[in-house]
Specification:
Elements: H1 2-30, H2 43-49, E1 55-56, E2 66-70, E3 73-80, H3 81-84, E4 96-102, E5 107-114, H4 118-122, H5 126-134, E6 144-147, E7 155-158, H6 165-185, H7 204-214, H8 216-234, H9 236-240, H10 243-264, H11 271-282, H12 287-291, H13 294-309, H14 313-319, H15 321-335, H16 345-368, H17 370-376, H18 382-387, H19 394-406, H20 413-417, H21 420-429, H22 449-453, H23 475-480, H24 487-535
Helix pairs in contact: 8-13, 10-15, 16-17, 16-21
Length: about 525
């Protein structure tokens, strides 16, 4: 009996324990007040949206969203746009934005929590991004939202971020449309809402078309400039024979590159663009991903053409805003007779390898995490110098200004030794089809003029041009056709002058002889006519 009683008691305990587990499991599933968001890092943002929150429910439902409670009263909902509308941006990945709205469908807060957009790393400060997303506070799910300064009746206007039009359009599309979907699913917004006030879902195709229409002026100016550069390169042999004209054309183009491409269009290319393209190739490649930024797409397409025909030097020497800024600063310094300082040749050639080492390190980081690579890619001063126009923290400002000041005494120091983008472009440039820079057998021996004049020291002592380091300034081609500087041409000119002088001497002698003969004939004729008068 005692054993039966013990078995009975043990079974009773097991039943009670099982019932307790069921109750606890049910409470965790059906009581949202005890659950937390899937990602605890989101809690501070949600707390800033709902200062009086007490509990946060799980992210659940279709579309996924989490209910926010304050003392068991429903305050609103939060959701991630990447869960509701994963529209790819320029990086090919969605921008994950946390959105919170109250029970009336009014937005109480927006935060970008995760992205892989190069422009948000190299071109936009955190303050600019926070200012942009804070504009959504107070907008209702029933409102229509537009980007830009145009005032349209019935629309809520959001100011864009200069230089990040595509990213802004993606954020606005995902926030506005996802907000409506979540509000409808939770019964806050009627699913029968008039479609005339519902923004249409912007897919990738309509997104890039809108971007190209938005930047039609910049596209036309950039396209014209690239066509001009193409003509300069195609007719370079004619142009280098006119060094004064070439200097004027080149300096004007460099100023255009700094002002328009760099500061106005914010189209400075970065090594992050290379990593983004590589990741797109290894994952789901789509042209629409790159078409959403028209200026970058056009520049990269033109650079690809340059790599095949001329190598990487044309971009580094003509189209890179930071390289153009260094070149112009160095030209001013030389005109002011500021003494130049160069590394010894052995050190200079070793320093060339630095940019390739930096490229490999960044590429390795990008394979593990593109976000980590984006952080360390700040070795490129492009964001500070152009996108933020030197309005940044003092450490970044000091770094960018120092590199520009170094270019006063050392021509294009950053480009020669530190630029990972230049190193990345040099690798495919080895497959170029043509060699457009002319050389003679005398180059390097005995002539070394081009080697001494090369701005980036890309010409060896034996006369060969290192196309991986050449910036295509065309200075060596000016010397190549200069009859007063290039020794083979000087020698040829002297020979021609000597032959011409000998020929002129013969001609002069013949003219003198003919003149003497003519005078003699005239004298004889005069004598003959005067003889009869004398006899008479």
């Amino acid at each position: 009996m005692r054993q039966r009683f013990m078995v009975y008691r043990n079974g009773e305990y097991c039943c009670l324990f099982g019932l307790l587990l069921v109750i606890l499991l049910a409470s965790s599933l059906f009581n949202p007040a005890t659950a937390e968001p899937a990602d605890s890092s989101l809690y501070p943002h949600i707390k800033s949206f709902f200062p009086y929150l007490d509990h946060i429910g799980p992210f659940e439902g279709k579309p996924r969203a989490a209910a926010v409670y304050g003392r068991h009263d429903l305050l609103g909902y939060v959701f991630l746009t990447s869960d509701v509308m994963p529209v790819p941006a320029y990086s090919g990945k969605p921008i994950s934005t946390l959105v919170g709205f109250d029970t009336h469908g009014t937005i109480v807060g927006v935060r970008v929590v995760k992205h892989q957009e190069p422009i948000l790393v190299i071109g936009i400060s955190d303050n600019q991004l926070d200012h942009f997303v804070n504009q959504y506070r107070g907008i209702n799910a029933r409102d229509r939202i537009q980007i830009g300064s145009e005032n349209r009746p019935g629309y809520q206007t959001i100011d864009a971020i200069s230089g990040a039009t595509i990213t802004v359009m993606v954020i606005n599309t995902t926030v506005s449309r996802a907000l409506q979907l979540v509000a409808e699913s939770r019964g806050i917004l009627s699913s029968q809402t008039d479609t005339s006030i519902t923004p249409a879902t912007m897919d990738e195709k309509s997104l890039w078309r809108s971007a190209w229409a938005e930047k039609s002026f910049q596209i036309s100016v950039l396209g014209s400039a690239l066509v001009l550069l193409l003509l300069i390169l195609l007719f370079q042999d004619w142009l280098v024979r006119r060094p004064v004209l070439l200097a004027y054309v080149r300096d004007t183009y460099l100023v255009f590159t700094v002002v328009f491409i760099g500061w106005y269009a914010l189209a400075q290319l970065s090594v992050l663009n290379v990593f983004t393209f590589i990741q797109a190739l290894t994952h789901e490649f789509q042209w629409q991903t790159f078409l959403v930024d028209p200026l970058m797409f056009i520049l990269w397409g033109f650079v690809a053409l340059l790599l095949v025909l001329w190598g990487r030097g044309v971009y580094c020497g003509w189209l890179c805003p930071f390289g153009a800024a260094q070149e112009l600063i160095n030209q001013i310094a030389r005109r002011l007779n500021i003494r130049q300082w160069e590394f010894p040749l052995v050190v200079h050639e070793r320093l060339w390898a630095l940019k390739y080492i930096i490229l490999l390190m960044l590429f390795g980081l990008s394979l593990q995490s593109l976000e980590t690579a984006e952080h360390y890619s700040e070795i490129e001063p492009f964001k500070t110098a152009f996108t933020l126009r030197f309005q940044r923290e003092w450490s970044y400002l000091f770094y960018a200004v120092t590199l520009l000041l170094v270019s006063v005494v050392n021509r294009k120091f950053y480009c020669k030794y530190l630029c990972p983008l230049g190193a990345a472009l040099a690798i495919p440039a080895r497959l170029r089809l043509f060699d457009w820079l002319r050389r003679r057998k005398e180059c390097g021996h005995p002539c070394s003029i081009c080697e001494q004049e090369c701005e980036v020291r890309a010409i060896s002592a034996t006369g060969e041009i290192n196309v991986n380091e050449c910036h295509y300034c065309l200075d060596c081609q000016v010397s190549f056709y200069n009859k007063r500087k290039c020794p083979p041409l000087v020698k040829q000119q002297r020979k021609w002058n000597k032959q011409s002088q000998s020929h002129s001497e013969v001609v002069t002698l013949n003219m003198l002889v003919n003149e003497v003969v003519e005078k003699q004939n005239v004298s004889e004729s005069e004598l003959k006519t005067s003889e009869p008068r004398t006899k008479k």
